[in-house]
Every structure is written in structure tokens, then in C-alpha cells.
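ASSEMBLY PREDICTION REQUEST
Request ID: AP-0331
Submitted by: J.K., bench scientist
Number of chains: two
Total residues: 814
Priority: normal
Notes: Please return the full assembly, not individual chains.
Input sequences:
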Amino acid sequence: MDFQARLSRLANVCVKVGVNVQPGQELIVTAPLEASAFVQQIARSAYQCGSPLVTCLYDDPQLIRDRFEFADEVSLDHPPTWVYQRVADALAQGAARLYVAGPYPDLLTGIAADKIVRVHRAIALASNAESALTAASRINWSAVPFVTRSWAKQVFPDLPGDEAVRALWDAVFEVTRVDSADPCAAWDEHNLTLKARREALQSRQFAALRCFDGRTDLTVGLIDGHRWIGGTVVAANGVEGTCNIPTEEVFTSPHSAGTEGHVHFSRPLALAGALVENLYVEFREGRVTAAKADRGLDTFEALIASDEGARRLGEIGLVPNRSKISDTGLLFYSALFDENAASHLAFGQSYSACVLPDASDPSRPDRGANQSALHIDGMFGQASMNVDGVSRDGHVTPIMRGGDFVI
Amino acid sequence: MDFQARLSRLANVCVKVGVNVQPGQELIVTAPLEASAFVQQIARSAYQCGSPLVTCLYDDPQLIRDRFEFADEVSLDHPPTWVYQRVADALAQGAARLYVAGPYPDLLTGIAADKIVRVHRAIALASNAESALTAASRINWSAVPFVTRSWAKQVFPDLPGDEAVRALWDAVFEVTRVDSADPCAAWDEHNLTLKARREALQSRQFAALRCFDGRTDLTVGLIDGHRWIGGTVVAANGVEGTCNIPTEEVFTSPHSAGTEGHVHFSRPLALAGALVENLYVEFREGRVTAAKADRGLDTFEALIASDEGARRLGEIGLVPNRSKISDTGLLFYSALFDENAASHLAFGQSYSACVLPDASDPSRPDRGANQSALHIDGMFGQASMNVDGVSRDGHVTPIMRGGDFVI
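STATUS: Completed
Returned structure:
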């Protein structure tokens, strides 16, 4: 199959399985400039599903970098409120949302970490209303990858540019099931597997998860009334979509004060343009008390210092060590892939959709779920990892052994 | 001088002479995808002027065409309200605005005129708040050209693609004074000439203008308390900018019921993707009563039928027959150029900045200025054109003879 045909199939998966655009529903896409040919395929697919209007907000990476180089430093805290607020309004009025994520890992090389953090924080504040709508599954939305030249070069540093781009697209098409005979049917089947896993965990309502191997021993307390999410999500508007393409994970919300122990992150974290390698973190009463890394520690520490919730956990996701993503053997340096290649934790904001409504105590709608302007994923899963579910009475149920599900 | 240096000079003219971006002022740019290198120069220049944030809303021409081809026809009336409303919000809160106009004359070839009109009307309604802010000079804004391949091919149909693009850029750089020793100083001098012309007309307060040559005899009644505009404008926010780069015109607002006679348009009108050639129009009591054209009459008639004001005049602009633009000898098929190459009329919306406040009759703030969702320019000026100013007592003052100013 030629490249355009595969790209068109990926656009169909995004629109039909990912967002599941409904007749009469506007679609708002964000994408980098270099993805315009893909966006055009997405728009065609959405129009064929009955969307009246597809709007793409194109990101220009060069403009992002130039602001750091040419704007007055004091202006980096200036919040781009209007850019995000109207998108939130449109979503609240019924639009669907698609994020085409094209990473530019070398974009901010040489820019000081504290400047990057300031811009990230201003954007996070400005986009708060939008993030709240998607995180709480108020609307149908999805995120999907796009191979940029910059990203391909990072994943395949030894290949010439065009070959690296081709090789990364091959991997993306493989893990997004585009090369299956019927990609949408393959997704339906995969989503059923994730549903069975999430329902098995959901019915147990473990008090905590203990993750352990030779280098990690971490107990993550879960909130009372947590919800496991994975595969499809039925949003509050009634539309069933798949928020991440690809996805292999089931995940839920820790209690913000319930994590104890230490964890070694098995893969680098790609944060604000920097790589954090071999990160090791200790927790007490839910809070980071110490951190070490071979590289990028300053970026990690600057980010988790940006508010109190950034020092605490907002997500734990479980992923089998063998999956379409981990079978590629690649490190993608992208949360959308790597968090689906291995079990992971996230510092910062919880997904409010992971918290069941609590009729008995309306004064604590969050039930201890974490609050932050940030959400930073880090992978700790690997072939040696074990996970136990610990019930309220101390009973232990094996969930994963040697990196694979046993529940 | 190489192309990048000239493009950078044009960006400087846009930012400093056109918009006149102020320290602390956000800049919102609209541009086609293919103009991204130019937008990056604009952003650098704006950041150097102290702007805290430059945001570009990129237009993707292919998405515009694909909507006509793939969306359900009924959805063409769907107004993209949020897309425009958020920009209006930002402008009302202090941002400046720059439109990078890159024409795509062949974009909508084969699409039915009535469909195009429906989409235009929906956009005009949705962008009403923004248009009101710019038309009334509430904020500093500017429009500037960008040479697309599609446009270059239209202007130079006999040249190969790359040569056509080069030739049109040469013309654009010439008329935007980029090749002057000091482009911004050349603009300051030119703007002083336009200021002298507009003040001479302003002080006369003619009751009407009579435009006549062998094929045209049209009397355009002006509103009481009209204002002539040309060169720089001091917006309500106190910032002095130049709304069009290039500009050669002085213009004001007719009374919506005050036009009598007939006019032959000396250049084609480029409307909604179609060309209207050899247009001839008759007026009675301000209203179009008959129209003829060699080509494109259906598009013109569909547009002026879209509301009552679209059948009436909202602008008359006077331009000498010899100017940097007309000296190129080119037909640009773009209002930004052609309306500055020759005297012109516009059907539809008046510029509210052309109406002086009327303290004696607050019930008629518009004083008979025209209202419409549309604004369609057409050129009638040529080497044979004469214009007289007619005062309230019938006294006649020659303004232009044989295409040139004599006032």
C-alpha cells in the first residue's frame, strides 16, 4: 500500500475510532504546519462523517522557538488566553477535538529550562478550561501521532533524513493497526481486550498497587471510588471514542497523599525539549522527597517545583511488556507511544474521569485526586516488573508478573 | 539585495509602518500556510518592537476547497462563530491585527457560485465583530500582500511558475517601497502626500462627487459629515498605522441613497473566486437598477442580492492614474493592489471611520452610511476619468482631470 493510502487509513482511524465525529458535529484540529497533507485527509474523513466544519489551528514550530529568541523575557509569562478560551467555548457548545501530535525534540535546544517552564505554565493556565473538558471526558476527543523530520531523526539517529522518516512512519502505521486488513475492525477488537482488563481491575477496587522489581518498590494508594479507564471512553455527550491512537494502557488515579517508596524510571522522560535519563524518585506521604538522574535533573526539578501538585502523582497506567508498541523495540521519546509501551506514572494533574461521583461526601468531589497545572508522564514498566493489588483488608492479588498481566 | 533580505524589509514595513505594533501589544496574524517564512520574519520584527506574543492563524486553502467538495451542502451556512469571535475578543482587549493576503484565484474553480456566496455570508456574519473593530479604526491593523504561486500564475500566465513568482515579487517589492534606500522613511514621505490630499478634500465637505468620461456619468452623493481617509490612520487606541500596504488612495463614504447615473468598471472584479469582466452598472436613488458584464455577471448578481446594502455603495476611493502601482502596467486581480491602481467604488458596508460623530442627531449615528455584510470593490478610474466636487449650493470644483489630481 502506498504512503498516501496508509495516511488516509490513519486519518479514518482518527476520525472514526479516535474522535468518532458525529453528524452535525464541528471538529477542531491542532497540528504542526508540516502535517497539512494529513490534516486534509482528516478533514475529508470528518466531512464524510457529516461534520459541518473542520477548523485546523496550525502550530508553527519556528514561531515557538523565535519567541524565546526575540521576545522580551518578561513577556514569556504572558498568558495566550484568547487562543485557548474560544476553543473551550466551541467544545462546550458541542465541537469535537483532535490533537495531531508532531514532536520537535530539537526545537528548543539551547533555550534555558526556566524560560521553557514559564511558557509551559502560562499555556497550561490559559488552556485550563479546555484541558478540564477533555480530562473529564465531557466531549469526544483524541490524540494521534504525526511523524516530523525532527522526531524521526531522534528515533533513528543513524539513518539519513528521508529513510528515518520512512522507518518511523512504518512503525507508526504498524502500532496504529493501519496495515491490518480492516483497521477500524482491528481497533474494535483491541478495544474489547482493554475493556475486559479495565473491568477486572474496576470490580476489585484495590486500596493500593504495589510495584516492585530489583530497583523499584513503590506502593501507590488509590483514591476511594477510583475508575479504571482504557480503550474506548463514553464521553458525557454520549459519544464513544478512543482518546489516544495508539493506546495499550489501562489507568486510574492515585490518592495525592498515598504514595510511599522509590521508583526507577526505565525509559527517558522527554520534558519541555529536554531528556531526563535514568530518573530515580523517592516518595513520602505522596510527595517527592528526593530525585536523581544521569541527565536533565534540572528540567525535572524545575517542572515539579511549579506547583504543589506537580510533586505528587496524578496517574498510574499499566501496560503489558509485550504489545504492538514494545514489540517495535523502539524508544519513541513521545508519551503517546512510550506511555503505551510500558507501565507508567504521571506527576501532576489527575484525570477527573478517573474519580467516581461520591454522593456521600459532596464536600470532597476530588476524593484526594491530585491537582496541578502540569501532567508529566514517566515510564517505569519493564520485563522484570511485578504489580500487586492490595485490598483494604491487606489481601494481595497478583496483577502483573514479569511485565505481563496475570489478572 | 537577495530575496530573504527584501522579505525581511517588507516584514519590517508591515510591523512598523503598517500595524505600528506597540511595546506590550499582542499581534494576531492571518496568513496562508505557504507564507510561513514571511510570518516568521513578521514575528521577529514584532518581538523586536516589544510584542509579548505573536499568534498566526494559518489558512489552509486546500481545507477551504475540500469543504465544498466533501461536506454536506446544508452545512455551508454553518457560521464559524468561535473562530472569529475569539479574535474579536483579543482585539477588544488590546491586540493589533495583520492580514497577510495571499490570493488563490483558481482555488474554487468549478464550485457553484451560490455555494461560495453562502459560505462568504456565513463568514461575514461570524466575523462581524472583528470587521466592526477594524472598519471603525478602534485598533491598529494592516493588510499586506503575499505572492502565492496561484496568484503569480494569474498575473503572468505566460511565464513558467518560478519566473512568474519572481516577477510578481519584484512588482510587490517595488510598489511597497521595499527597494528604497530606507523603506520606512519612503513610506513616511508618501503618507505625507496622501495626508495633504485627504485634508484638501476634507475641508471642502462636498455634497457630491461627479465622475465622468465617455462611458461613465455617475453622481455619488456623500453623507453629511463624511471623513476622508488616506495614508496613516490614528486608531481609537491612539496608535497611528497604515491600514493597507501598499496604498495610494483617499476614500470616503457615499450616502446609501445618493448615487445616480451609470458607471463602467475599467478593470475586472475578482469576486469569490470568479472574475467579473467589463461590468456596467446603473443606479437610481442609490440602488443598483441594472447590471451587464461580459463574464461573471451571475457571481456579481448573487453577491449583491445577499442583502439590501450589498446593492448600494459604501465607499468611493480616488487614486491618480499614475502611481507606483499603475506604473507597473500590471493587472493584479487583487483589491489590495487594483483598488490602489485606479479610482474605485465599493458595494456594501461603509467604513464607519468615514462618518464624523453627529452631536446634533444622535438618533442617526450612521447619517445614511451604507450597511451590509459584504464589501466588494470595483475599479472605474482610468486615464480619461474626470471627477468634480459639487458643493451644497451647486458650485463645481475640479478634483481630477484626465485621471490625475488637480485639487
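REVIEWER COMMENTS: The interface with chain A takes residues 24, 26, 33, 36, 39-40, 43-44, 47-48, 50-58, 60, 62-63, 66-67, 70-72, 74-75, 78, 80, 82-83, 85-87, 89-90, 93, 95 of chain B (CB under 8 Å).
SIGN-OFF: pending second reviewer
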